[in-house]
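Long-time lurker, first post. I've been practising inverse folding by hand and with some scripts of my own, and I keep getting stuck on stretches where the structure tokens seem ambiguous. Below is the full token string for one chain I'm working on. Before anyone asks, I'm not after the true native sequence, just a reasonable design that respects the backbone. If someone could post their per-position residues I'd love to compare against what I wrote down in my notebook.
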């Protein structure tokens, strides 16, 4: 999917919501456990109830890998369901990969060609040759971890390296990578006040912003400091939406939570 198409969807739906499909069988409604594939049954119900309120879904692969081959099959069914039924939706494989070039090429094939995701999250730690194999795919997006939402972000990401915080080095150096127009970046909603400086370095890049909802980040602050002329934001909530209820009406309950965020996003878009 092109970035222009994504921006068009955001304007049309008045939403830059990404719903995280972090599907955990300990948390899904009990009646679904009788289904042949409870993970897919849960995801399908959530997607059908919320697709008009969001522009992206982000399955975090850890939640699927934890169930072995069955989990991976549920991930494959989920991305196929999205691509067949809702092709206007931007899909993110939250896999946080990155390795020597030869290996990164295989990861890129797995997520972009075999599974057919629009984007994948990548750790920048191994540098240029670990990221460029992902960037080589046309109309696919590589979402580089810049400043993450967790406490451990301060262990390395904000440390000074050659006079600049490491996360700023990530932003600046990655701009020199081949096909860098295919880059997006992760910035945690819990780090919203850093967004002004981040926007000075990457004024127009799309940011995936997790951390509203369960982690306590503020949507209003993220928009205040992080929204660009082309919106430039995908704000993710996972647990705060998908586990709104553990009863039969769980999908409807998740749609209500998604609608609350979509309505706040609509207001933020109108402020511009
Ligand atoms: O790359 C991510 O999506 C990510 C980066 C980050 O800095 N913080 C973060 O929480 N995430 C992911 O975003 C999701 C957040 O989930 P909730 O806290 O339940 O909304 C999880 O899948 C995390 O792995």
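-- Answer (accepted) --
I ran through it position by position. Result:
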């Amino acid at each position: 999917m092109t970035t222009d198409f994504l921006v068009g969807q955001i304007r049309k739906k008045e939403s830059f919501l990404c719903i995280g499909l972090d599907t955990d069988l300990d948390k899904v409604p009990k009646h679904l456990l009788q289904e042949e594939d409870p993970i897919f049954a849960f995801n399908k119900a959530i997607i059908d109830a919320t697709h008009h309120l969001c522009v992206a879904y982000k399955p975090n692969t850890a939640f699927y890998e934890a169930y072995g081959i069955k989990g991976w099959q549920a991930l494959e069914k989920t991305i196929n369901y999205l691509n067949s039924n809702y092709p206007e939706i931007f899909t993110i494989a939250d896999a946080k990969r990155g390795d020597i070039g030869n290996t990164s090429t295989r990861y890129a094939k797995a997520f972009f060609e075999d599974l057919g995701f629009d984007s994948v999250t990548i750790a920048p730690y191994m540098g240029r040759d670990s990221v460029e194999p992902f960037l080589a795919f046309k109309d696919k997006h590589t979402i580089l971890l810049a400043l993450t939402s967790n406490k451990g972000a301060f262990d390395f990401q904000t440390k000074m390296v050659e006079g600049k915080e490491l996360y700023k080095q990530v932003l600046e150096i990655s701009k020199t990578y081949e096909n860098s127009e295919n880059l997006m970046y992760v910035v945690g909603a819990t780090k919203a006040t850093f967004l002004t400086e981040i926007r000075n370095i990457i004024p127009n890049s799309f940011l995936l912003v997790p951390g509203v909802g369960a982690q306590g980040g503020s949507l209003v602050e993220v928009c205040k400091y992080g929204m660009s002329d082309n919106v430039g934001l995908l704000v993710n909530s996972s647990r705060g939406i998908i586990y709104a209820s553990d009863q039969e009406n769980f999908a409807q309950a998740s749609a209500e939570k998604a609608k609350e965020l979509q309505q706040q996003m609509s207001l933020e878009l109108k402020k511009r």
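A couple of notes from the structure itself: The chain has one domain: 3-270. The pocket of orotidine-5'-monophosphate is lined by residues 20, 22, 60, 94, 121, 148-150, 186, 188, 210-211, 213-215, 236-240 (CB under 6 Å). Happy to go over any region you disagree with.
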